[in-house]
Design goal:
Blueprint: E1 2-7, H1 18-24, E2 28-32, H2 50-64, E3 71-76, H3 78-92, E4 97-103, H4 121-132, H5 142-160, E5 174-179, H6 187-190, E6 201-206, H7 217-232, H8 238-244, E7 248-251
Parallel strand pairs: 1-2, 1-3, 3-4, 4-5, 5-6
Antiparallel strand pairs: 6-7
Helix pairs in contact: 2-3
Length: about 250
C-alpha cells in the first residue's frame, strides 16, 4: 500500500489527519508528520525555519515507511512548502515519491505580501484569522491561547520567511489544489508550482475558501485519488469517476 504522508498547516498537529485514515479506506496508509511544539511533542521547541524543519523530520518519516513503500506527499499552506522540501530529501534517499500534492499555496519562490510575523498579539491573531477565514475557538480561552500562540507564531515566521533549499525542480509530478474562493492564494499563484517540477503538473479547485479542507477531507482524498490514478493509468470505479470528473486538469509544463 502507498503511504499518504500528510504535513500539517500552521498551528495544526497530526491529529487533524487522523479522520483521514478511515476516509482513505484501502487507498493509502495515512502517515501524519509530527512537528515539535504540538500534541505529543508540545514541550519541544517549535521550528522557525522550513528547511531545518524538513531536515529534522525526514528521519522520522523514513522510519514510518515500510520497506520500499511508495509515497504520496500532501501539504496545505505551510505544509505545502514543508512537503516540497521533504520531497527533495526523500528523493535524495531513493524513496519513491509518486506525487506531491500541494494545497492552498503559491509557488515555493513566492512569499506572502501581507505578513503576521512580529505583530503584537491581538494584531497577530486578527491577521491569522484573516488568512484562515475563521477564528479557532481555542484562541478565545487564555490558557489554550498561551499553549497555542508560541507554535502559531513560529509556524507563521518560518512560512513567511521561507526560501527554498534548492532552485532545482523536482522530478516528481505535482498537483496543486486550491479552494475556489480562496482570498489568500490566487489561481495564478497556485499554478506557479508547474515551475517546481520537470514531471507532470496538474491543477484543481475544490469548493471553499483557503481552509476548504477542514470540511472537505473526503473531496480532497478523492481528488488525490484522481491525480494518483492518472499517474498510474488505472481506471477509477464508475461512481468515483462521475463524482470527481473534470476537477483535475493536467497542464503543460
Amino acid at each position: 500500500m502507498t503511504a499518504l504522508v500528510c504535513v500539517p498547516f500552521a498551528g495544526a498537529g497530526p491529529s487533524f489527519f487522523h479522520p483521514w485514515r478511515a476516509l482513505a479506506g484501502g487507498r493509502w496508509r495515512v502517515v501524519p508528520v509530527e512537528l515539535p511544539g504540538r500534541e505529543k511533542r508540545i514541550l519541544e521547541t517549535p521550528h522557525r525555519n522550513v528547511v531545518e524543519a524538513a531536515v529534522s523530520s525526514v528521519d522520522d518519516v523514513v522510519a514510518d515507511l515500510g520497506e520500499k513503500e511508495r509515497v504520496v506527499l500532501f501539504g496545505h499552506s505551510l505544509g505545502a512548502v514543508l512537503a516540497y522540501e521533504l520531497a527533495h530529501l526523500l528523493s535524495a534517499r531513493d524513496v519513491l515519491v509518486e506525487r506531491l500534492v500541494v494545497s492552498g499555496s503559491p509557488g515555493p519562490w513566492t512569499q506572502r505580501e501581507r505578513r503576521a510575523t512580529g505583530l503584537p498579539e491581538q494584531e497577530f491573531l486578527a491577521r491569522v484569522e484573516e488568512f484562515a477565514g475563521f477564528r479557532h475557538e481555542a484562541l478565545d480561552h487564555p490558557e489554550m491561547r498561551e499553549l497555542i500562540l508560541p507554535v502559531l507564531r513560529a509556524d507563521c515566521e518560518m512560512h513567511e520567511n521561507y526560501v527554498p533549499s534548492s532552485d532545482e525542480p523536482l522530478a516528481v509530478p505535482i498537483c496543486s489544489v486550491r479552494g475556489g474562493s480562496d482570498g489568500l492564494v490566487t489561481a495564478e499563484q497556485a499554478r506557479e508550482w508547474r515551475k517546481a517540477t520537470t514531471g507532470e503538473f496538474s491543477y484543481a479547485e475544490l469548493p471553499g475558501d483557503h481552509m476548504y479542507l477542514v470540511d472537505g477531507a473526503r473531496e480532497v482524498l478523492d481528488l488525490i485519488e484522481v491525480a494518483f490514478v492518472r499517474g498510474r493509468q488505472r481506471p477509477l470505479p464508475p461512481d468515483e469517476r462521475k463524482r470527481i470528473h473534470g476537477r483535475v486538469q493536467t497542464e503543460p509544463g
